[in-house]
Design goal:
It comes from Araucaria cunninghamii (Hoop pine). By secondary structure, the chain is an all-alpha fold. The protein has ten helices and no strands. The chain is globular and about 50 Å long.
């Protein structure tokens, strides 16, 4: 895709086809790269998304450090979780399993938010954020996290300005639709896998 028709979603969309191996397994590094490419979009929300951004960034770094410690053993994303499950460390708050779970949940929230922006033209940014939060992260958060989130989401940017900024010179509606269609397939796969090892329902302390 030529740069002149790029939106902030373009790099992320271009990286998505590389996430799976020929055998259909999610690869650690390409998956983390796609997540990392969502960060520039999140950045444009400003202070409303500081918590989400640092949460996502921290979990990417944790998984990335694990990958770098042994790239061949950790090439397949779910191998990292299997190893922790076998070592009985998966449920620890600093585990990579926990990191993957919260990274996936935060991305669920972002997808839901972008979907709201597409489908509910009349909603303010705060309404779009709050609805997405209630549908995704809220049930996993304790009172403190939930309160912090609710306060932060009131600081959302003006919706129209935000769409202009992330749209660049490309077709933002089309790119957001593509993102909201293709990324959830990978996120759901993560949830299905984590559920299969009994780790999809860990709550925040």
């Amino acid at each position: 895709m030529a740069m002149e028709t790029a939106t902030l979603f373009t790099p992320c969309l271009e990286a998505m086809p590389t996430v799976k191996s020929a055998e259909g397994e999610i690869l650690t590094k390409p998956f983390l790269d796609v997540c990392r490419l969502v960060l520039p979009v999140i950045e444009k929300f400003g202070s409303a998304m500081t918590l989400v951004k640092s949460d996502i960034g921290g979990n990417i770094s944790r998984l990335d450090a694990k990958y770098e410690s042994d790239p061949s053993a950790n090439q397949i994303l779910y191998n990292i979780v299997h190893k922790e499950v076998n070592e009985k460390t998966a449920k620890g708050s600093s585990s990579c399993t926990n990191g993957l779970l919260w990274l996936t949940r935060a991305m669920d929230f972002m997808v839901e938010l972008f979907r709201n922006l597409l489908e509910h033209q009349e909603w303010t940014m705060t309404e779009a954020c709050t609805n997405a939060y209630n549908k995704t992260l809220k049930k996993w958060h304790g009172w403190i996290a939930s309160t912090s989130f609710t306060v932060a989401m009131k600081l959302g940017p003006d919706r129209k300005k935000f769409m202009e900024v992330i749209g660049g010179t490309g077709d933002i509606k089309s790119d957001m639709e593509r993102f909201c269609t293709s990324f959830p397939v990978l996120l759901q796969e993560n949830h299905n896998f984590l559920r299969s090892v009994g780790l999809d329902d860990l709550k925040a302390s």
